Amino acid sequence: MGFLDIDSAFKTYGSVEVLHNVNISVGEGEFLVLVGPSGCGKSTLLNMIAGLEDITSGEIRLKGNLMNGVHPSRRNIAMVFQSYALYPNMTVAQNITFGLEMHKVPKAERESAMQEVAELLQIGGLLNRKPAQLSGGQRQRVAMGRALVRKPEVFLFDEPLSNLDAKLRVDMRTEIKKLHQNLGTTIVYVTHDQIEAMTLSTRIAVMNEGHVQQLGTPKEIYDTPANLFVATFMGSPSMNLVPVTISANGEAVCAETSNSFGETVRLAVPEAGSDLRSMSGKTVTLGIRPEALTDKDGADHRSTHVERCASAVGVTEPAGSDTFVTTSFGEAECVARMRADTDASSGAVIEFAFNMEKAVFFDPKSGIRID
Amino acid sequence: MAAPVDADFRTRLQIWLPKLVLSPSLAMALVFVYGFILFTVYLSFTDSRILPSFGWVGLENYFKLFRLRHWEIAVTNMGVFAVLYMLICTAIGLTLAIFFDQKIRGEGVLRPIYLYPMALSFIVTGTAWKWMLDPGIGLENTMHALGWESFAFDWIKNRNYAIYTVVLAAVWQTSGFVMAMFLAGLRGIDNEILKAAQIDGASNWNLYRRIIIPQLRPAFLSAFVILAHLAIKTYDLVIALTGGGPGRATELPATFMYSYTFTRNQMGIGAASATIMLMTIAAIMIPYLYSELRERK
Amino acid sequence: MAAMQQESAIRTSNTARVLIYLLLLLFAFFYLLPLFVMGVNSVKPLSEITGGNMMALPEIWTLEPWRKAWSEAQVGVQATGLKPYFWNSIKMVVPAVFISTILGALNGYVLTKWRFRGDTILFGLMLFACFIPFQIVLIPMARVLGIFALAGTTWGLVLVHVVYGIGFTTLYFRNYYAAFPTELVRAAQIDGAGFFQIFWRIMLPSSGPIIVVSVIWQFTNIWNDFLFGASFADFSSQPMTVALNNLVQSSTGVKEYNVHFAGAILAALPTLLVYIVAGRFFVRGLMAGSVKG
Ligand SMILES: Nc1ncnc2c1ncn2[C@@H]1O[C@H](COP(=O)(O)OP(=O)(O)OP(=O)(O)O)[C@@H](O)[C@H]1O
Ligand SMILES: [Mg+2]
C-alpha cells in the first residue's frame, strides 16, 4: 500500500465514461506527473483526488484512510490551479492565510506560518497587494504559498505553469523541483507538457481517453514505451515509426525495410525477445527516436549495435544545436538528429546510422510493444 | 485526519445546502406562478362571477369571449398596436444605432437622452402624452396660440385614431432601448470584417445591407421577443393615456381582463382572456428561452 | 459591454454626416419634448397652460404646483397630496429590492457553482415567470393575499414584487457568476470554506457591478409598477404610480394640469435620479435581460 492509492477508479458524466479503471499508487515523497492530451481526464482525476468531483466507483485512499465522500478541506491536501484561483478581493497575505482561517487556526499562528512561506517563496514584499497587481510569476508564487502554508500531505498541481511565458516556465519548473527536493512532500502534478513531465517527475502516468497508458519512471516511459500512443506522445520530435518485416535466423533476428530508393535495408536486432522472434515473417512497427537515428559520426560510440545504410535526404532543418534531417524508410517519413555542422543537403545520398540498442517494436494492430 | 466514513456529515450538508437554498425561490415560482396559472386556467372553465366558483362550464367562457364585441376590439387593437409598435421601434432603433455607429461626436450626451424614457413609469409617460396630445391644452392649442389657426390634431379624442397615440407614446418610451440593443450588436461586429469588405470595394449601403445587418440576427431576435412581450403586457400606458377610450377605442386584452374580472364581475371570462394572453406570450417566449438555455451549457 | 467601446471602422462623407447629425438632434428633441413640457408647465400658473402655449416658458414662475402635488392635491378621495404615497412606495421598494437581490444572488451562485442535474430546467421555470402576463395571476394572488391577511398591505406588495422579480435577479447573477472562475470556488473549498463562507467571502465581494445592475433594475421595475399596486393595495399602501393616476384621472373639479405635471415628475424623480447617477448600469441591466449569454 502506498501513501496515496487510487484503486479501480471510474468516472462517468451521465453516459460518458471519462476515466476507466485507473489504478495508481503513489509513494510518500513521490512526484507523480499525469500527462496526456487535452480532454484525456487528467484534471478530472486530480479533482477526484482533491474531493472536488465524486468518484463514480473505486476507492481513493490517503495513508490507508478511505477518502471517498470526505470533504476536500478534510483530506489534508492542497491544490494549485492553472489559473491560480487567487481570491481577487483579498490581499496576498489574506489569500495565503484564508485556508488557515477557515480551519480556525489562531491569528498569531497564521501570521507566523505566512511569514515563513513568504520567506521561502520570496514574496515578502507583495503581501499587501491584490492579485490584480501581481505579475504572472508572482501570482504563481502566491498560489504555491497558499498551498504550502497548510503543510498538506499531498500537493496537487493542475497545469500550474501553462499560463507563464517560456522563460518563466523554465525558472518556475526548477523552483518547483527544488521545493520538492527540500520539503520532500508528495506531489501529483498535471501537465500536458512532456518536458515538464520528464524533468520534474519521479514517475509519470501517461493517459489517453481516460485510460492510463503507462505508469513508470521517466526513463522507462521514454526508452520503453508500452505502446504506440506513449511512444509518439512523449518525445519531440516524436519517435520514428518504420514498418519492418522480422526475419529470425537461428540466434540472429533481423528487421527488413527499404530505403528511399526502395533498396532493401536489413537491421540486426540485438537481444531480441521471444515475442519478437515469434513474429518472424510478419510486419511490425520499428520505433526509433531521432537521436538514435544519426549520421555515422554522430552515432553513440558506446553502442555496439549501430547499423548503417544509405538513403536520400529530404529536407534539412537546422535547429542550432542540432540539424534535423528527414528521409524515408519503408515509405515512412523519418527524422534523424545530426550534428549541427552536418554536410547533408537536400537530395544528397548520405549514410544514416541506426542505434539498434534503442530500437523498440510494436504490434501494428494493437499498438502494444513487442519484447 | 478525517475518519474513513463514506460521507461525513459536513460533506453531506454541503451537498444538500445548495438545493436547500434554491428551494424557497423554486417553491415560490411553483406556487405563485405555475400554481396560479393552473388556478386561473381552471377558473376559465368555471362559472365564476364576482368570486371564484367551481361549477364546471367547459369552454363556454371562451365561446362567450369570442362573441364579445369588446374582446374583438381589444384583440384588433392589440394587432394594430403590436405590429406598429414593433415595426416602428425596430426601424427607429436600427436607424439610430447605425447613425450612432458613425463615430458621432457627443454620443455620450445623446445616448442618455434617447434612453431615459425607459426609466420612467408608463403612468408618467401616459400622463405626459395625455396632456401633450390633448387638443384643449396640448399641441393643437399650442399651434393655435402660435397663429396656425387651422391646425387640428385630436387623435387622442378620435375613436379611429386614438390607438395610434398609444403607439406613439409606447414608441417614445422604448425605441431608445431598442437602439441600445442594436448598437451593442453593431459594436460587437468584428471590425476586421468591415475593413476587409471596404477593401473589397463595398459601399456603405452594401456594407450594411450585405454584411452588417445579417450579422445582427441575434439583436433582431432579442428585440422582437422583448417588444412582443412588452406589447402583450401593455396595460398601464393605456390606463394613463386614454383609460381605454374614447369609448372602447383603445381597449387592449390587458385592460379587458382587468375590467371584466374586477369591475364587471365576469371572472370566468376574465380568466379565459388571461389564459389567451398567456398562451400568446408562451408561444413566443418558450421557444426563445429554450434555444437560449440550450445553447449555453 | 466592452463592445460598447469599440470604434466603428466605417467612413462616411461629410454631407451624410450633416444629415445624420440633424436626424440625431431631431430625435433628441423628440425624446426630450415630454420632459421639457412637464418641467415647464409644472412651474406655471394654471391659467398660462389653459389660455396659452404649452411650449412657452412661464411668464410667472411658481413652485405652487409642486407644493400642491406633494402635500395638498386631491388624490382619490383625500386631499393629502402625493406625499404619503411616495413613502408607501419607498417602504415597498426598499425591502422588495433587497430581498429579491439577495435571493437572486444566492440562486445565481447555486445555479452556476453548485450545478446539479436538471438545474437548467429549474432556471428556465424561474425565468419564464418574468415574462408571463401578470393578468394570469391576479385572481389567485388576490385570494392568497386575502387569506394571509396581506391584502392591502405593503408587505403583501413586497411579497408580490419579490416573487415576480426573482427570475430577473437570478438571471443577472447567473449570467455574471457563469463568467466567474469556478476554480476560485474549488480553491476555497480546499481551503475549508463552506457554502455560505464562499458566498460571503469570495463571491459577494466581487459582485459589485451586478449588484448595482440588479438593484437598479428591481428598483425601477418595482417603483414603476402600476398593475399590482392598483390591484392589491389600499390607501395605506398604494404606491406613487397609482396615486399619480388617481390624481390625473380624478374627475372632480378643474383639471390642474400644472399639478399633474409636477406630480408626474415627482413620480419619475427617483428612477430618473437613479438613471442619471448610474445610467450605464441601467442600460447594462436592460441588455442583460434581453441579450443573454
Ligand atoms: N462536468 C462535466 N460533464 C461532462 N463531461 C465533462 C465534465 N467535465 C469534464 N468532462 C469531460 O471529461 C473529459 C476529461 O476532462 P478533463 O478536464 O479531465 O481533461 P484534461 O485532461 O484535464 O484536459 P486539459 O488538458 O484540456 O485540461 C473531457 O472529455 C471533458 O469533456
Ligand atoms: Mg485540465
Describe this structure as you would to a colleague.
The complex is a heterotrimer of chains A (371), B (297) and C (293). Helices cover 24% and strands 35% of the residues of chain A. Chain A has 371 residues and is α+β, with helices and mostly antiparallel strands. Chain A has a six-stranded mixed sheet with strand order 6-7-8-3-9-10, with helices on both faces. In chain A, strands 13-12-11-14-21-22 form a six-stranded antiparallel sheet. Chain B is mostly helical. Chain B folds into two domains: 65 residues, no CATH class; 179 residues, MetI-like fold. Chain B is flat, with a radius of gyration of 25 Å. Chain C has 13 helices and no strands. In chain C, α1 crosses α13, α4 packs across α10 and α12 runs antiparallel to α13. Chains in contact: A-B, A-C, B-C. Chains A and B meet through β5 of A and α1 of B. Bound molecules: adenosine-5'-triphosphate and magnesium ion.
Quick take:
Chain A: One of its GO terms (cellular component) is ATP-binding cassette (ABC) transporter complex, substrate-binding subunit-containing. The complex is a heterotrimer of chains A (371), B (297) and C (293). Chain A contains nine helices and 22 strands.
Mean pLDDT of chain B: 85
Helix coverage percent of chain A? 10-25%
End-to-end distance of chain B, in Å? Answer: 37 Å
SS strand fraction of chain B: under 5%
Q: Using the coordinates shown, work out and report the CATH topology of the largest domain in chain B.
A: MetI-like fold
CATH architecture of the largest domain in chain A: 3-Layer(aba) Sandwich
Measured on Cα atoms, how large is the radius of gyration of chain B? 25 Å
The percent range for helix content of chain B is over 70%
Topology diagram in text:
The complex is a heterotrimer of chains A (371), B (297) and C (293).
Chain A: E1 4-13, E2 16-26, E3 31-35, H1 42-50, E4 57-62, E5 65-66, E6 77-80, H2 92-102, H3 107-121, H4 136-148, E7 154-158, H5 166-183, E8 186-191, H6 194-200, E9 203-208, E10 211-216, H7 218-223, H8 228-233, E11 240-249, E12 252-258, E13 264-269, H9 274-277, E14 283-288, E15 293-295, E16 306-312, E17 316-318, E18 322-329, E19 332-339, E20 349-355, E21 360-362, E22 369-370
Helix pairs in contact in A: 2-3, 2-4, 3-4
Chain B: H1 9-43, H2 60-67, H3 69-100, H4 107-115, H5 122-133, H6 139-145, H7 162-187, H8 191-199, H9 204-215, H10 217-233, H11 236-241, H12 253-263, H13 267-295
Helix pairs in contact in B: 1-13, 2-13, 3-7, 3-10, 4-7, 5-7, 7-10, 8-9, 10-13, 12-13
Chain C: H1 14-41, H2 46-51, H3 64-71, H4 83-113, H5 119-131, H6 135-147, H7 154-178, H8 182-190, H9 195-203, H10 208-224, H11 227-232, H12 240-249, H13 257-290
Bound molecules: adenosine-5'-triphosphate and magnesium ion.
Adenosine-5'-triphosphate binds at residues 13, 16, 18, 36, 38-44, 192 of chain A.
GO biological process, one term (chain A): carbohydrate transport
Pfam families (chain A): ABC_tran, OB_MalK
GO cellular component, one term (chain A): ATP-binding cassette (ABC) transporter complex, substrate-binding subunit-containing
